[in-house]
């Protein structure tokens, strides 16, 4: 079985997505996306720090607003950590997340079989007063002693 891969939009794909949502491809939006392509999952603070390292001056409020706009139009997705910190995911395709509660990081787990199994199970269920729009699976874990030494 081929291993599925997630999709992180290239700069050109990102520009197209922005146009589709009637946003301009500003220097700041492009700089934020460039950093998100590297980080994949990040908070606004993490993006700001990386932008500063690259010599770009974008305020934390601007970064948060850009990330929120992109999540609102589903170019990015939001991830709320166990510590209630907002993270953003540059890959908006369906995939499972593994959240490391000690290091406060996310890792993508691409498992189409598990996604399909959960989806099929929930499709048969009815939730009175609700229509299921999407399924978002997040596993919360802590590193094993073995992985801490890596």
Summary tags:
Dna Ligase, domain 1; 6 helices; 3-stranded mixed beta sheet; alpha+beta; 6 strands; Arc Repressor Mutant, subunit A; single chain; 150 residues; 3-stranded antiparallel beta sheet; 2 domains; globular
What does this structure look like?
The protein has about 150 residues and is an alpha+beta fold. The protein folds into 2 domains: about 10-95, Winged helix-like DNA-binding domain superfamily/Winged helix DNA-binding domain (Arc Repressor Mutant, subunit A); about 95-150, Ferric-uptake regulator, C-terminal dimerisarion domain (Dna Ligase, domain 1, 2-Layer Sandwich). It is built from 6 helices and 6 strands; from the N terminus they run ααβααββββαβα. The protein has helices spanning about 10-20, 25-40, 45-55, 60-70, 110-125, 145-150, and strands spanning about 40, 75-80, 85-90, 95-100, 105-110, 140. The chain has a 3-stranded antiparallel β-sheet with strand order 1-3-2. β2 (about 75-80) and β3 form a beta hairpin. α2 (about 25-40) packs across α3 and α3 (about 45-55) packs across α4. The longest helix has 13 residues, at about 25-40. The two termini are about 30 Å apart. The mean pLDDT is about 90.
